[in-house]
Amino acid sequence: MKKLSLFVFMLVLAFGFCSAQQPPLNIIVIGAHPDDCDIIAGGTAILYTKLGCKVKFVSMTNGDAGHQTMGGGALAKRRMLEAQEAGKRFGVEYEVMDNHDGELMPTLENRLKVIRAIRNWKADLVITHPSDDYHPDHRNTSLLVQDASYMVIVPNVAPDTPPLKKNPVFLYPGSSSPEIAIGIDAVFDQKIYAMAAHESQFFEWLPWTNGTLGQVPADPEGRLKFLAGRFQPVNETVKALLVKWYGGTLGTRVTYAETFRTTPYGKKPSEEEIRKLFPMLGTQ
Length: 284
Prior knowledge:
Blueprint: H1 2-21, E1 26-31, H2 36-50, E2 54-59, H3 72-90, E3 93-96, H4 108-120, E4 125-128, H5 136-151, E5 169-173, E6 180-183, H6 188-195, H7 199-210, H8 220-228, H9 236-246, H10 248-251, E7 257-266, H11 271-277
Parallel strand pairs: 1-2, 1-4, 2-3, 4-5
Antiparallel strand pairs: 5-7, 6-7
Helix pairs in contact: 2-6, 3-6, 4-5
């Protein structure tokens, strides 16, 4: 209860800071498949929505290849419905683009789709896959976002959509070389519940790929515990970052966090700007 109370206090502090100092932020998370955004930044997205900020998840493909027995249009339809339900549980808008799973390419057409998505959302912050991710769709999504990162302010590119007046900040997940750590203990259970909407992935396809399909519980509560087991408590590197951003009193008490790092593209934020982009950090 003490830990939860501390994080409730942090949210109250952040809400006051956010509303008093700046207008609500617009955040867009761009992943390759339905469920990728949930993993990358689901907890942080929930924290943003609780602060009155607008969050959008975008999947660059329809996920029509990610299953051991289903595929094609039937799977794409199922995954669209799962994404819509996950969006409701996260409290975000969820868009699924109609590109085939496993076939995403960094074409000009797809780059323009990304540019328009970022502009239409009037994004202050863009989060996407790292450029060295394991899946080709992940890497190509990262490349598409990289290639869009400057073009979003260029008026003569995609002139049908008004350009942004300033370049957003672009971030990768901080699985390697993390720079920012966001404590998500207060919303961890909600993140797991929201992710569980992707039943085809977390309770069928991914367990099949790693040989744990037989371990998936049948009951809803057991499935939530099974899914929560994907996430490990913070290590010493992340704990040190949490102390940096939250201070020793709060930072040392975090169990679960999401981490991020800046990309080589877009605006390079100062520490002060990072605190404004992540108002759940409060003030020091």
